[in-house]
Amino acid sequence: MADNEGSNGLFYFLAGTALGAALGVLLAPRSGRETREQLGEWLDERRAKGAELLHKVKEESLVKKDAVAAAAKAAKQAYGETNAKHHHDAVAA
User: CA-CA distance, 72 to 9, in Å (whole number)?
Assistant: First the structure.
């Protein structure tokens, strides 16, 4: 639950930063062409950073997926071993 709250806070912070930067560019005392060029550069930077973040999230999700799969496999193996031991003990008794 705490991770989700942190993610929401980070999202709102980044959204607020982006909105503030966009408003700052749009309200700056520059010509329309200069403003459009600056806004275009800013959007290109954000697009690159967004792609980088998406790539990082995908990598991390694959690592977590592999960890969950390994844990599930270990749990299944442990259950099988425990079940076999109990079955063997029951037959021996």
Answer: 31
Which pTM was predicted? 0.43
Q: Could you tell me if 25 and 42 are in contact, meaning their C-beta atoms sit under 8 angstroms apart? A: yes
- Which amino acid makes up residue 37? E
Q: Which amino acid is at 84?
A: A
Model confidence at 3: pLDDT above 60: no
Which parts of 1-93 are beta strand (E)? none
Quick one: tokens of 36? 């459009």
Say how far apart CA 68 and CA 72 lie, in whole Å.
6
Question: Are 26 and 39 in contact, with CB atoms under 8 Å apart?
Answer: yes
Distance from C-alpha of 68 to C-alpha of 28, rounded to nearest angstrom: 50
Looking at residue 31, the DSSP 8-state letter turns out to be -
